[in-house]
């Protein structure tokens, strides 16, 4: 799907799982560039961190070789970490940025620092954020694609299909959440189809009470409740394209979603 994927990392522990996950998102012949930015501090500390970055560079090369994909690690030092990431993304022609949620979901702000916020706001390419549950390598039974639109977002469906193929053809379930006056929260009709790449795709209409539907862009629990009825899976969430109601994947919405999600989550903003 992506020809040039940029993965910013902060610690050696993130290197292998992020490269392995990113490999599933690559188009044939695609490549990964791994970036570690050292915030400019005192010279002794900068020197120490620069030497320690070998623990990022070597695993990046080893993981790329094991997966037989091109991985190019790079280490930079800069005061403006998100600015450095955005500069490299622009100069390298990156079409996707892959980030991991680094915060503690029990904290008030699961995004550590302002890096994720700046990338979400200013990146010209797709920004993909995953939580740590998505990086465990555990097999999932299905991919859930919830949306408040009449159809799943095209790019999110493409990404879900790519992951489903890499997982051996697991099914995709699109949850189409809508409002119907006077109707309590319930599950509506199903429609079964097959994607262009042969993946089973079930579209399920989920009818919400109007009062609940009006809170849809402020309360991620609505999405998680719908996912719970399907016994979870890997949740892939993209923008639903409803311009009249504003963007869904705001920082506030994502903070609440990642803080409470009990399942692997991937969000796509692009």
UniProtKB/TrEMBL annotation:
<protein>
    <submittedName>
        <fullName>Universal stress protein A</fullName>
    </submittedName>
</protein>
<dbReference type="InterPro" id="IPR014729">
    <property type="entry name" value="Rossmann-like_a/b/a_fold"/>
</dbReference>
<dbReference type="InterPro" id="IPR006016">
    <property type="entry name" value="UspA"/>
</dbReference>
<comment type="similarity">
    <text>Belongs to the universal stress protein A family.</text>
</comment>
<feature type="domain" description="UspA">
    <location>
        <begin position="1"/>
        <end position="130"/>
    </location>
</feature>
<dbReference type="Pfam" id="PF00582">
    <property type="entry name" value="Usp"/>
</dbReference>
